[in-house]
Amino acid sequence: MIRFLIGKLAYLIPTFIGITVVAFGFVRLLPGDPVLLMAGERGISPERHAELSAQLGFDRPIVVQYLDFVMGIFQGDFGTSLATRRPVLGEFLTLFPATMELAICAIILATLIGIPLGVFAAIKRGSAFDQISMGAALVGYSMPIFWWGLLLIILFSGILGWTPVSGRIDFLYFFPNGTGFMLIDSLMSGQKGAFASALSHLILPSIVLATIPMAVIARQSRSAMLEVLSEDYVRTARAKGMSAWRVVGVHALRNAMIPVITTIGLQIGVMMAGAILTETIFSWPGVGKWMIDSISRRDYPSVQGGLLLIAGIVMIVNLIVDLLYGIINPRIRHS
Amino acid sequence: MKFAHLAMVSALAIAAAAGAQAKTLVYCSEGSPEGFDAATTTAGTTMDASSDAVFNRLVEFAPGTTNVEPGLAESWDVSEDGLEYTFHLRPGIKFHTTDYFEPTREMNADDVIFSFLRQGDPESPWADYIPGTTYEYYNAMEMPALVKEIRKVDDLTVTFVLNRAEAPFLANMAMPFASIYSKEYMDQLEADGNMAALNSQPVGTGPYQFVAYQPDAVIRYKANPDYYKGAQKIDDLVFAITPDPAVRRQRLEAGECHVMPYPSPADIEAMKANDDLQVMEQPGLNVAYLAYNTTVAPFDKPEVREALNMAMNKQAIVDAVFQGTGVVAKNPIPPTMWSYNDAVEDNAYDPEAAKKMLTDAGVENLEMEVWAMPVQRPYMPNARRVAELIQSDFAKVGVNVSIVSYEWGEYLKRSTDPTRKGAVIMGWTGDNGDPDNFLAVLLGCAATGDGGANRAQWCNEDFDALLQKAKVTTDQAERTKLYEEAQVIFKDQNPWATLAHSQVFMPMSKDVTGYVMNPLGRHSFEGVDIAE
Amino acid sequence: MTATVKPQSERARVLREFWFYFSENRGAVIGLAVFLALIFVAIFAPLLAPHDPIQQYRDFLLAPPSWQEGGASQFLLGTDAVGRDVLSRLIFGARQSLIIGCVVVFIALVGGIILGLVAGFFGGWVDTVIMRVMDVILAFPSLLLALVMVAILGPGLMNAMIAIAIVLQPHFARLTRAAVMAEKNKEYVMAARVAGAGRFRLMVRTILPNCMGPLIVQGTLSFSNAVLDAAALGFLGMGAQPPIPEWGTMLAEAREFILSAWWVVTFPGLAILITVLAINLVGDGLRDALDPKLKRS
Q1: Contacts of residue A143 in chain C, CB cutoff 8 Å?
Q2: How far does chain A reach from its first CA to its final CA, in angstroms?
Q3: ipTM of this complex > 0.90?
Q4: Which H helix or E strand runs over A158?
Q5: For the sheet containing B218-223, what is the strand order?
Q6: Which secondary structure element, helix H or strand E, spans residue B490, and what is its range?
């Protein structure tokens, strides 16, 4: 197991170096520059422009800037945001819990609905339930979620007035940012109604973000289940007179879950992309919206730091999925 | 229904909480501030969050106008030659007492001097207190060249000595960059090695004091109990950061916020019709224009520029793009600004005559570029749409237009290139309400060339002489005359097609009282209340 | 004789068999029908559209659909903020979406196959470098990476397509490489090699046809991803630029009207959904027909 882990880690080092190059290089290639945006319509003389660029360190050789960036990372310094003049890492860490809260809720929602849907569809293969739920899953899988989010807002917030339009909690409630997870913080604050408010703000964004993973998980569970059900040992168990439910519960489900867990892990990366759109639509103050804003305001340090941190997180999640997979399915480790 | 139940529970809880809690005003602001140091910013969003809420200046713009009135200075004297401004400070002004700072003394001349010195002195530890700090407005208003010395006469008297007479100086002193900071607080931050906190935990003398900021989400303030004009009626002020105008509207209608800026033009009619809302409006201190490059043929000929202006159906453009939120512009300054010359007549829309003028000028089969900015600006809801409309208008007089756009930073830069081909859609929002801040900045000879804001590259000696004279004249009636004359020359020469002045709208809940719109586009909540 | 050159009747038999399995899947057939209809609409857009998609009818700004009160009969699905016919824009938008899908899949497929073939066949450090680069690309959320790339290249349809293709191509590279690795040492390849087939010829004529199945399935998947991602980029203002009638861009332009003019928001999104759904249905059918394991289950 240890050797497996070390092997995996060694494998990640070149990828990580690649990521730093991409994050840094892409950002340097962005056209336009922050000094110009600062000057706005007023314009800026070439001399003053050079002066400000020097002050921001953009005039040094590109390799020096890159090495500075990499050295900084190892000291936990991801640079200072040009837009807010705060450390990029600090900025990221204040926003990341919001994204994580949303992503966790979405993945829970997707799993709790997706797996049973897929499993039952497989058991009742060909039934109306199978066809309807798989049809729905395919629609969900094909959904442009930015449009889906708008529709839900129009319906639930606009017409019915059931859920708040956007944000994380009603502004009447104010308590210190403990864990950064609004659901937990609101509970701990002891303020009446705070938790309900936080929850009601979370519902629509979670549904939107869960839509595609839910569909993928449902489809994956169904086909994994079908595969297992067709295997010899299940057939044998069935032939021996074991009840269908018992077969499913004891043998099939456990084995079918192996590929499903991988799928769930892989959905984390997909969800980071979904989070960009979901957060934009619901004004959810997470890292996805922050990245979009940072790109549009040419906040170099934030974009490169954010790219790196997000890619790093996706990488670590994938590693954990790999390890988990190795634990559940020992065959993998030795092949 | 699960959702309904949940929503009801939370609505009840909110109602219950509201009864017990303090009076809170929620403002759905349009973006995140860069921080809370008003001296370092050029962004309106940051000014709203810092200078208007937290700080005061020696002199202030009277609410709803660009007239200068006493602020932290009770009164001021100007010397005969216009070179010395002496401010008499109001006694007993207290800085905010917060979790992070407790003032031990009242505001005095040292605070005033320090507030300006840190911006002008490159040796000051505050010159670059966060990597990349710049004092753009201090530089843009030419303060380094203008101010010779700032002298402390006594604890409550400060004299600014200038290098030359400059009529707009007093208005400059009411601008956000001239906010007065606590020297005591800044010294404490410096001693603690925590200078960056100046930008994240502001201490001022203003109507509200800072409580907390969650990036991209919420800024919280509470009323300053020691405010020199008396404590505000609102206990808590909340900025709910909501960049999308459609979402701002939804939040306002759902009662999640009380006031919102920058509504989408298409929504205004419906919001006016909503009985729970009131929509305040006033002309913005801005102009949108199409600047020809007057140094490139055939646009170097005034008659060609005039002909093109006549080919443009400006009323139709303003109707389609501004949808009732703008008026056609004929002068480079907005109608609400003093010295606006209403006697000037705009180029009449006459495609036939325009076509003939172009032929007479020897211009045929003209191919030109029209540049459209990629972003929304306060003076321009949709430049792309304007360009498309100009394109079809110009086609009718035989001019073939291709529309060009660049990323906003590139656009700003390339549009100042003296060799630029084509006409560029641009605009301007006033900084201090002085006509000089439009005419000299955008059309003066000094602003031509690479990086300058004179994107028409237009340098007219007569026009420029009038501006120079007006700048050193202190008598406003005389200045008015000079600027009126300048506007006549402008229209005669047509370096721009003046497009529109936008109307500014502020939708808010019917319960909000005492809100006054700021002609400079700031958003201040001083004196605002919520009716029960 | 190599394994690929099959007699005419053999090829026909394969096709017949394929169609048999494909047509068993009702959803796939419906999807195919919708997709063919879309192609038809895209090709004959100028004939089908009642109006020019960028013509502005300035007397009909934001006119509602014709069946609604205040609607004009000549604008079936209403008009947008500058008076353009929504239906015509949707019809021409089908062109954009199909072009996006085809171009992206083409670039990603060709790029991915070449990289995968090279990596799989040569192995060693070439393989390592190529696959590490693919890992780096896959480490970023695809939309985020595409967004940054478009920001670099400048907003526009072509740049959006290039960015999406780059983000999608590692999947093809990985698939091809895996197939090459699996097939490389099989007998028929060895035989071809012994018979003196060149490396290039070997790769293209011998190995490639045997991993076509998964590539086709991945191709349809990428097609729908491309349509979705391009729409998302358009929605974020980084894709096709106005006045091009691209569905995502139309949605972005319409967003300010979500409460006042439902038709400009609803229809473009519906068009995206239907297109992507149809392609995914076809993709499912293809997978069932091409994947022998699922076929029998």
Answers
A1: 273, 276
A2: 13
A3: no
A4: none
A5: B24-29, B236-241, B218-223, B208-214
A6: helix B476-493
Asked if B133 has any chain A CB less than 8 Å from its own CB, the reply is: yes
Q: What is the mean pLDDT of residues B191-205?
A: 92
Please give the angle made by the CA atoms of B7, B8 and B9, to the nearest 5 degrees: 95
Question: CA B216 to CA B411: how far, in whole Å?
Answer: 26
Domain that includes residue C214, residue range: 42-294
pLDDT for the residue A330: 59
Q: What is the pLDDT of residues A71-99, one digit of tens each?
A: 888 888 888 887 777 889 988 998 899 99
Size of interface A-C (CB pairs under 8 A): 122
The total number of structural domains that make up chain C: 1
- Alpha-carbon gap, residue B49 to B206, rounded angstroms: 11
Say what the pTM is: 0.79
The percent of residues above 70 in pLDDT, for chain B, comes to: 96
Q: What is the DSSP letter of B96?
A: P
**Partners of B212 in beta bridges:** B220
Chains that touch B (3 or more CB pairs under 8 A): A, C
> Which residue from C minimizes the CA distance to A139?
C277
Question: Please, are residues B158 and B109 in contact by the beta-carbon 8 Å criterion?
Answer: yes
A2 or A330, greater pLDDT: A2
- Which residues does chain A have within 8 Å of residue C272's beta carbon, measured at their own beta carbons? 144, 147
Q: In terms of C-beta density within 10 A (0-12 exposed, 13-18 middle, 19 or more buried), how is residue A72 classed?
A: middle
Query: What is the domain-level CATH number for residue C79?
Result: 1.10.3720.10
Across the interface, which of B244, B392, B407 has its CB nearest the CB of C154? B407
CB B32 within 8 A of CB A83: yes
Sign for the CA dihedral angle at B205, B209, B215, B218 comes to negative
Q: What is the pLDDT of residue B356?
A: 94
CB nearest A85 (choices: B17, B199, B451) = B199
Per-residue pLDDT tens over the stretch C36-78: 999 999 999 999 888 888 787 877 778 888 888 877 788 888 8
C170 with C145: CB under 8 angstroms? no
Backbone angles phi, psi at A180, to 5 degrees: 90, -15
Cα–Cα dist B94/B108, whole Å: 10
Helices (H), A124-193: 128-141, 145-152, 182-189
CA dihedral A148→A152→A153→A155, nearest 10 degrees, is: 140
**B244–C255 C-beta distance less than 8 A:** yes
Q: Does any CB of chain A come closer than 8 Å to the CB of residue B447?
A: yes
Percent of chain C with pLDDT over 70: 93
Answer yes or no: do B320 and C154 touch at CB < 8 A: no
Touching check for B306 and chain C: CB below 8 Å?
Answer: no
Count residue pairs from A and B with Cβ separation < 8 A.
Answer: 185
Q: Does residue C31 belong to any structural domain of this protein?
A: no
Residue C196, Ramachandran bin (φ over 0: left; ψ between -120 and 50: alpha; else beta): left
Q: Are strands B236-241 and B218-223 parallel, antiparallel or unpaired?
A: antiparallel
**What does DSSP assign to residue B320?**
I
Cα-only R_g, chain B:
25
Q: Which residue has the tokens 């913080």?
A: A185
In sequence order, what are the residues at sequence separation of 6 or more whose Cβ sits closer than 8 angstroms to the Cβ of residue B327? B283, B318, B335, B500, B501, B503
C18 part of a folded domain: no
Residue C138 inside a domain? The answer is yes
Residues of chain B neighbouring C256 (CB-CB closer than 8 A):
245-246, 264, 266-267
In a domain, C32, yes or no: no
